[in-house]
Amino acid sequence: MSSSQRPNQLFRNLNAKVASIPMILTALVVFVGGTAWTVLYSFTNSKLLPRLTFVGLDQYHRLWATPRWLVSIENLLIYGVISLVFSLVIGFILAALLDQKIRFEDTFRTIFLYPFALSFIVTGLVWQWLLNPDFGIQRVVRDLGWTSFSFDPLYNSSIVIYGISIAALWQGTGLVMCLMLAGLRGIDEDIWKAARVDGIPMWKTYLFIVIPMMRPVFITTLVIIAAGIVKVYDLVVAQTSGGPGIASEVPAKYVYDYMFFAQNLGQGFAASTMMLLSVVIVIVPWAYLEFGGRKRG
Amino acid sequence: MVDIASLSTSPEALRRDGAGPSGPKPRHVLSRRNIFLYGTLVVVALYYLLPLYVMIVTSLKGMPEIRLGNIFSPPMEITFEPWVKAWATACTGLNCDGLSRGFWNSVRITVPSVILSIAIASVNGYALANWRFKGADSFFIILIVGAFIPYQVMIYPIVIILREIGIYGTLTGLVIVHSIFGMPILTLLFRNYFTSMPEELFRAARVDGAGFWGIYLRIMLPMSLPIFVVAIILQVTGIWNDFLFGVVYTRPDTYPMTVQLNNIVNSVQGVKEYNVNMAATILTGLVPLIVYFISGKLFVRGIAAGAVKG
């Protein structure tokens, strides 16, 4: 394309620019504009309608003084740690088991991954039923003769977040397994041969050779899980609606409720800005590690 | 194919299974290793299947049997009444026409959203791969970074935009929202795919005088059907399973299936009918499950593509 006359610089490649309008609008208006708008209005005292009356950090002071928000944050931390640790460990173990040249690999993989196709609403409702103390697992065990058996996480405010985590793990571990399996398949077979020749036991090979080699896969998986954790919303809505009381509230639900029910937009904006901040804290170091060192030309 | 594609079933992995005299290691079928290996896998598989089994079993029982028996026992008397009720007469608020309303709403949301989002993203990806203009990459980076922003941050500004245009609460509005939030991952998917296609193809078409749309429609589109299938799988399951956007951007009579399901099951009034609830839950999960079981490896490729950056 050598016809570079000055005046038609803007119209060069016009079709591509026209075709990119949706992307440009999405990037600038929704992603940049929308985010900036929300952050800006989080410093106002907007109630039912957004208004530009600035009140400084008042909304944030109020946010961190609200018990419900504190419970939400605590739940998010517990849920996050459980999700990260268990889905990584279980996902990796399952992938390692599937990688042993076994038969019916496809069948097993299909079974482990199918919950991932289901929505969080469906997941939450199934586990709500399984964990129902009157009819679910607790009842079954009691009917077997162990009458003092107690397993009612969804009705016990001190452990309700663990009940939600069980459902989340059931739904999401398959994905981690798939990513790990892809990573394991990328390991050179010669590594295994060398380890075998040297007489290194299998678990040691995994722990000290294979896992360090899979670092990129682990980091990617970590970022995906972490981004999902912050967004957790539907699962809680379906399983407990935040109850009993406020025991299983999460930040995403706080935002939604304050924006659309409590008609306290300022609080909603402040809370969502805090969510954004938590993502930034996770993503920026990762992006720095991943892209900072070697900027592609 | 794409480098993404090699993730799920890489050629090495396939070759490794067949080839290589891996030494005279006698394989007893019932070695301790095998018992442990398959034993663990079977137990875990049972655990994963259990909820699905309980769902199906519960939905086929009558309420008296549910109150008496345990949730794992198969139904003594199979009844399809809960399924009929869940589909046709279960109540949410004032509407008593069952989940069928939500089902058709979801169809009317999913079909146009999938078509629109894929049309936009594939053209975007094509422009980014073959027709770069100044600044295109910056927009693309913003788009990808934007994929990590929690939706909650952008929900309300979008409400305002849609209200200004006058489509807040309509299915059109929701379709646009789905297209917006599907854009980052799909654009990435298509961009990487088109970039991996041979450059000569594009050049030859240019020499023959084909333009932007001509090359897209006559060369790129027919050659990239697999990636379109992956994108369709990704979008159908994703949009069908969406709850947050449905609840924010639609009104009760246009609620998608997931929202209606949640309202039916978690409604406070009336006697809880667990069999109807479970039938409704299966019905809602059926579409993505069918997509999953039919698409098989392509689904895995789709989520790997969605998960791993190119």
Walkthrough of the structure:
The complex is a heterodimer of chains A (297) and B (310). In chain A, 69% of the residues lie in helices and 0% in strands. Chain A contains 14 helices and no strands. Chain A has helices at residues 14-19, 21-41, 58-63, 67-98, 105-117, 120-130, 137-143, 160-185, 189-197, 202-213, 215-231, 234-239, 251-260, 265-292. In chain A, helix 5 packs across helix 8 (160-185), helix 6 (120-130) crosses helix 8 (160-185) and helix 11 runs antiparallel to helix 14. Chain A is globular, with a radius of gyration of 25 Å. Chain A starts with 13 loop residues before the first helix and ends in a 5-residue tail after the last helix. Mean pLDDT of chain A is 88; it is low at 1-5. With 310 residues, chain B is an all-alpha fold. Chain B has helices at 5-8, 11-18, 32-59, 63-68, 81-88, 99-130, 136-146, 151-165, 171-195, 199-207, 212-223, 225-241, 244-249, 257-265, 274-295, 297-307. The longest helix of chain B has 32 residues, at 99-130. At the A-B interface, helix 1, helix 2, helix 4, helix 5 and helix 6 of A face helix 2, helix 3, helix 6, helix 7 and helix 8 of B.
**Number of helix segments of chain B?**
16
* CATH evolutionary superfamily of the domain at 102-256 and 288-307 in chain B: MetI-like
Helix content of chain B: over 70%
End-to-end gap of chain B: 13 Å
Question: For the CA atoms, what is the radius of gyration of chain A?
Answer: 25 Å
Question: What descriptors fit this protein?
Answer:
heterodimer, A: 14 helices, B: 310 residues, mainly alpha, MetI-like fold, 16 helices, 0% strand, disordered N terminus
Summarize the structure.
The complex is a heterodimer of chains A (297) and B (310). Chain A is an all-alpha fold and 297 residues long. Helix content of chain A is 69%, strand content 0%.
